[in-house]
Specification:
The chain has six helices and four strands. By secondary structure, it is an alpha+beta fold.
């Protein structure tokens, strides 16, 4: 099923009768539809149509959600955050400082700010503020007190 067909099917849901929605539910889920209201059915069917066409969650995410449902928490060691020192070249960092917006671009060998090249985010932050700053904290890549 292509994108346009999925969009058409999702767009047609509000015009369907409850009986048609329940039939579609049975066709897509292979179960009886729940006794919820029309809005619920439309939203869940829209999701399911897209899921069938484009694929669902990755298996690793399904397993993680199942573990979270049992334990009620997301274990910190399982959270995946990109390392701050692995910013991809071309990434733009934006920060408002004293009412002015500042933009810094990550280069393969440093950082560019206002046409000037800097060796570190701290150097850019120091240039902007005139005081010593940790660049990762200034640009919001890490919170104060958080370890690298």
């Amino acid at each position: 099923m292509n994108n346009i067909e999925v969009i058409r099917q999702v767009a047609s849901l509000p015009g369907m009768t409850i009986a048609e929605l329940k039939k579609l539910w049975t066709d897509l889920h292979k179960t009886e539809p729940p006794a919820f209201n029309r809005t619920f059915l439309e939203k869940r069917l829209a999701y399911r149509l897209q899921e069938v066409a484009h694929g669902g969650l990755k298996k690793e995410n399904e397993k993680r959600l199942e573990r979270m449902a049992v334990s009620g928490v997301d274990e910190p060691q399982e959270r995946k955050r990109p390392a701050n020192d692995q910013l991809l070249p071309g990434t733009r960092l934006v920060r408002e400082w004293k009412g002015e917006e500042h933009r810094c671009t990550v280069l393969s060998d440093g950082f560019e700010y206002q046409g000037r090249k800097f060796g570190s985010l701290s150097a850019v932050a120091n240039f902007i503020t005139g005081t010593k700053w940790n660049g990762h904290i200034f640009w919001g890549l890490r919170r104060q007190g958080e370890k690298q």
